[in-house]
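To whoever is on call:

I kicked off a structure prediction for a single chain this morning and the downstream step that reads the tokens threw a length-mismatch warning. I double-checked the sequence; it's 247 residues and nothing unusual in it as far as I can see. Pasting both halves so you can look.
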Amino acid sequence: MKMTKLFIAAAMLAVSATASAQFTNTAKTGSSSAVDTNGWGTFYLQWNPSTIKIDVNGIDDQSFTGFSVGYNHAFGIVKNTPLFIETGVALQYSFYTVNWKDDLKTTVPNCDPEDKYNMLSAKVPVNLIYKFNIPNSNVAIAPYFGANLRFNISGKSKTEFNEDAGYEIDKEYWENKYNKIEKDLFDKKDMESKDATWKRFQIGWQIGVNAHFGENFLLGISYGSDFSELYKKAKINTTSITLGYKF
């Protein structure tokens, strides 16, 4: 929470300082220039390192990796002010692996079981953006904040039981019990309880800043968190690194 507040404060300070500098420069020169309120479209790729924050004593948070591809469009909403509303849609694929060898080391010492998780989601951001140019350059800075809607299309887990060579066990038993057991993370029967079953829909918040280079390129960073739970006592926090092509 402290880091989030610091991020927000830094973004607002950057907007305030730059706006003040622009006003001062205009006042000194006695000149003014047309404000660019034209919108833009962006195709983008994102890297989404994330964490499932689990609010249960004794259970560790789970880090995972995600990648997104999407399209956003920004629309000017105030005449003579570079204020925009941006929305769009993206597909995100997330995955992580949990190794639970230590849980079986007393009963099956020479095995290496692991759970592999993956999830495909569609997400819709809705952001408020203020964009300003850096004087004497072709770079513009665009801090933003807003909401993010996420619909989880599919989610699977697969347990694989990997026995070590040379260790004699009842192979058929362990294969039936552990090897390649697949579960639908959104199916109550597969997950064995309502609390453990993942939910299809989340809504959250995000704050970030993009740098626009010339007419076509964009690089940005953002941070956000869910308001709603992925499953009981679990929410997702996400950092996103964005590379985009504008037109």
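Update from on-call: the warning came from a stale cache, not from the record. Cleared it. Sanity check on the structure: The helical segments are 2-29, 101-104, 171-177, 188-191.
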